[in-house]
């Protein structure tokens, strides 16, 4: 998906809590997700949200496209995972996933 001729970030997220023991992790994940969206909106960077809890295709695509060296030792990568089109940019803890797009939007004057 392109927006104003620019690539659009895909943000994979989930608001589903699979187990009560994961409640603290859940709130951290939600906080990270909202931080990412807030940054993208504030910088007028186009994005598309992909819910991995409600859509099995989104979950499968995200898991298959996170590079091996960015996956946890056990389990699956947790959201939010950030892609620019199909290019992996990292997770919440791995900036500068946003710098290239932010700088490009500033130069070109493109807004979301």
TrEMBL record:
The keyword Transport does not apply. Pfam families: SH3BGR. GO terms for cellular component: cytosol; plasma membrane. Residues 63-112 are annotated as: Disordered. It comes from the Eukaryota. InterPro entries: Glut_rich_SH3-bd, SH3BGR, Thioredoxin-like_sf. Keywords: Cell membrane, Cytoplasm, Membrane, SH3-binding, Transmembrane, Transmembrane helix. The chain crosses the membrane at residues 12-30. The keyword Membrane applies. One of its GO terms (molecular function) is SH3 domain binding. Coiled coil: none annotated. It is found in: Cell membrane; Cytoplasm, Cytosol. Monomer. Interacts with PFN1/Profilin-1. Interacts with ERBB2. Interacts with ATG12. Interacts with BECN1. Interacts with translating ribosomes. PANTHER family: ADAPTER SH3BGRL (PTHR12232:SF5), SH3 DOMAIN-BINDING GLUTAMIC ACID-RICH-LIKE PROTEIN (PTHR12232). Belongs to the SH3BGR family. Appears to function as an adapter protein that bridges proteins together or proteins with mRNAs. May function as a ubiquitin ligase-substrate adapter. Additionally, associates with translating cytoplasmic ribosomes and may promote the expression of specific mRNAs. This is SH3 domain-binding glutamic acid-rich-like protein 1. It comes from Cavia porcellus (Guinea pig).
